[in-house]
Amino acid sequence: MLSPYGLDIIESCLTCKMRAERLFCDLPTSALQAFESIKYATAYPKGAVLFVEGQAPRGIFVLCKGRVKLSICATDGKTLILKIAEPGEVLGLSATVSGKPYELTAETIDPCQVNFVKRDDFLRFLKDHADACFKVAEQLSEKYNNACHEVRALGLSHSAAEKLAKLLLEWSSRNGEAVKQEPRLKLALTHEEIAQMIGTSRETVTRLFADLKKRQIVQAKGSTLVIRNKQALKAMATNG
Amino acid sequence: MLSPYGLDIIESCLTCKMRAERLFCDLPTSALQAFESIKYATAYPKGAVLFVEGQAPRGIFVLCKGRVKLSICATDGKTLILKIAEPGEVLGLSATVSGKPYELTAETIDPCQVNFVKRDDFLRFLKDHADACFKVAEQLSEKYNNACHEVRALGLSHSAAEKLAKLLLEWSSRNGEAVKQEPRLKLALTHEEIAQMIGTSRETVTRLFADLKKRQIVQAKGSTLVIRNKQALKAMATNG
DNA sequence: CTGGTGGCGTGACGTTGGTCACAAAGGGTT
DNA sequence: AACCCTTTGTGACCAACGTCACGCCACCAG
Asked: Is the pTM of this model over 0.85?
């Protein structure tokens, strides 16, 4: 079997092992078969751009493997990273449904496997499969929810420190690390990228991390970060 | 007929004159009849709270008359106004679909007429009416789109002036005033509320308006604002 | 008229954090 | 080793803006 960019291709959604765990993949077999017939399994190298904000919607991208960076950017080049999409996520969904331009830019940061579905095919699929349509509504609610959290973090924070603390706590809650006394997390992003996630400058992120380390709140072990004082971090995240 | 809070109640969605113009109201008669049977026509005075962020979703609120302020607020009381909802808008939709808590707070700023539908009834209605389900997906896309714009405005702006310029331009584009040489708009909000919309302080808004007037970019005529120099405003909105 | 209240205008001041500039530390390649 | 290139660390400087403080005006009730 061909295996571009070092990926093990998932051939069919019907036999996909991760099917049950994922919102959009978990559909009755009849719908999945229909989906199967309109999807294009594709693969991208690291750094590929799936779509750019402002572009007319070509269709949806179901992420099967790898991570994708979702960002918006200003005319002057300043960019804001909204989230790093993980496998199972559907990208370009809202633009495809509404017909408006993609509202953000999607760029792979790993080699990725993606199922692409053309807009026309997808809309027809939704008309025919009411249960899929409901799943889409659920997915969109999820996305809206995330966007609201983003708005809250950006709009109601008093300082960059507060936003960084929020981000670290959110990351640690991803993998269930949050319940532990001293959560650990892999810092897979550069300071520059972290800065773009919280809407501040690279230097500020560096300084904030230095400060957190000095105050014994976090500790770096290679590329993993140990949160030594969860309470202090939470206090920073809520009181600004 | 009873007419609480000085409203002329719209009795039935089937005979509603505004039906065609509005996304959610524009459904086939069969679906509308089903909707009719599960909705509760209600009325609220000015200042009533439809739901609070964090609350478990009780159902959706279709706004028929009046305006509703949608906001999120921080633990310290600082609030951010996301938008002022106009008639035709469906409130609490995403939370009702996903089952997660309402992500924002809805408070009437006029006497309002509202059609309320309980969550259970609404979900059953969606299962039965695929076309309604698709409408919901469209509505959610719309909301997501708005949220993305909000994120962009908040996260990628360099200054409060830029955000205010963006807001004024957006307001003027609502009523088709934007095409005119010198668009006019009603300032229905206080400086305090405008500040809460762009995430800044009341004093800053006052100062910004004073500056805009001094530079002949806008002009106040009573409670209406005339934009005298659209170009300058656009420049402020894009170049920060 | 008088007092109360809510919105607006404005000065002074201090902090935050963006920007520039450069140094240091890795990490990979030749 | 010498060389890149990327990432991180740090100091200096300054504009933006949040905050406090207060005065003014309009409106309304008694």
From this structure: yes
